[in-house]
What we know:
Strand order of the largest sheet: 2-1-3-4
Structural class: alpha/beta
Number of helices: 5
CATH class of the domain at 1-29 and 36-71: Alpha Beta
Helix content: 40-55%
Mean pLDDT: 96
Radius of gyration: 12 Å
Amino acid sequence: MNVEKIIKEKQGTIVDVRTPQEFMGGHVAGSINIPVQELTVRMNEIKDLKTPLVLCCASGGRSGMAHGFLAQQGIECVNGGSWLDVNYYHSQSL
């Protein structure tokens, strides 16, 4: 799946897996915040989101961990890497 295409064509949901404090410091407009450590307890909420999920964080490490976990759960998702990169693609689609 091409991350840039998914974002530009608004095919899925952008999920920021950073802490709420990091999220409040800046995030992609319209993204939702589900910290990586809360994924297991918020699976019902995650399953209701429009897929594919584009996962992002500060550098791509936590979103990579989230991608591994969610993919194992059968959730269609991609690692978008840094939220700044995802934000750039998102800004191109406006």
